[in-house]
Amino acid sequence: MPGLAILPRGLKRGFGFVILHRCGTAGFYFLIVSTWRGNNEVWETVYYKNGEAMADFALSPRDAAHKPTFCVWELAAVWHETKAWERFLNPLATKPRCSVGSPIVTPGAAQKE
């Protein structure tokens, strides 16, 4: 997969996750880049790619006030990341397990039941 040509403006070093969502079998993809900000906020930037018609992902135009977040199949990844935030990043935890700059790698994949 080619690298992203456009990075989110103001993106700072920190923790987050990405979801690559394939829409059906036509080769249309959303790349959802989510980062943890504040004490418990998830911020996101969405990219799209229309199969072979596009060489790379492009920033998705999102002018509407209400921004879409996740579809039902992506919620398993969000649940996993919520649990990781509770375990590793929660500022109310008595003993934080990591700090910005130390990587968290948790292998796993969402599976349909």
What proportion of the residues form beta strands (DSSP E)? 25-35%
Number of helices: 1
pLDDT under 50 segments (min length 5)? 102-113
Give the oligomeric state of the chains in this entry, treating copies of one chain as homo and distinct chains as hetero. Answer: single chain
Calculate the mean pLDDT score and round it: 73
Please describe the biggest sheet, giving its number of strands, its sense, and whether it closes into a barrel: 4 strands, antiparallel
**What is the alpha-carbon Rg in Å?**
15 Å
The sequence of SSEs as H and E is EEEEH
Distance linking N and C termini: 28 Å
Helix content estimate: 10-25%
Shape descriptor: elongated
- Would you report the number of β strands? 4
Adjacency order of strands in the biggest sheet: 1-2-3-4
Structural class of the helices, strands and pairings? alpha+beta
